[in-house]
Structure formats: C-alpha cells, structure tokens
Specification:
single chain; about 130 residues; alpha+beta; Thiol Ester Dehydrase, Chain A; 5 strands
Amino acid sequence: MFFDTDCGGVVHNLAYLRFIEIARTLLAEQLGLALSDMAATQKYPVVVRTEIDYHRAAKLGDLLTIEGWLDHLERVRFWCAFRIVRDTDDALIAECRQTLALIQMPSAKLLRLPDSWDRYRAAAVDAH
C-alpha cells in the first residue's frame, strides 16, 4: 500500500510490524486459538518482545508472502517466528521472532499456558 512506503517507494520498517500482526492473528486461528474464544474468556496473548532482522528493502508494488509458525513454548511464554519473502524472486526481506505471554484481562494477570497447549509443543518442535 502507498501509505506503507516513504517518498522513495521503500516500505517503512514499522509496516512490517503490521504485516506480522496480521500473520500472527492468522497463525492463532490456524492453531485453533479463535479470537472469539479469547474475547469470551478474556485471555489474550500479548507481545513481550519483538526482534526483526531486515535483509532487503521491499518496495511499492512488491507482492510479499509472510510465513509464520509457533517456534517454542515454555510454562508462561511462547515464541512465534516469521519470514517475509518477496514473491517475484523469493528474496528474504525480513525475519522476525516474537516472545508472547498469556494474560487474563482486565487485571492483566500473567497466566501459565494451559495444559491444552501441550498439543502445540510438537508443532513448535517440528517448525523450521
């Protein structure tokens, strides 16, 4: 989108965070973590840390693919990882890793990941 770029047609670094936010929401749905369930239980994953390595610049008009996966789980934290690739030449544009935690709203109390998340551990081990 034009608003994602500077006057030279290069994608702003902050635009990648928005792209990753969308990809993380889709990943949650793929893992069976429906947004409607989060809203009903008031239990939400929150981003604690984001690391991004920028490899190449994406430009206005580039078609990008964002691949996301569950990377690692612990008792109260989990990690998601992402790769952004330009479709035309498969160039790696950026890589991202995010640390997340589960909280109970409205108190923002940190929660241990539920036992039901054990089914995701295999997916995290098998991930890239």
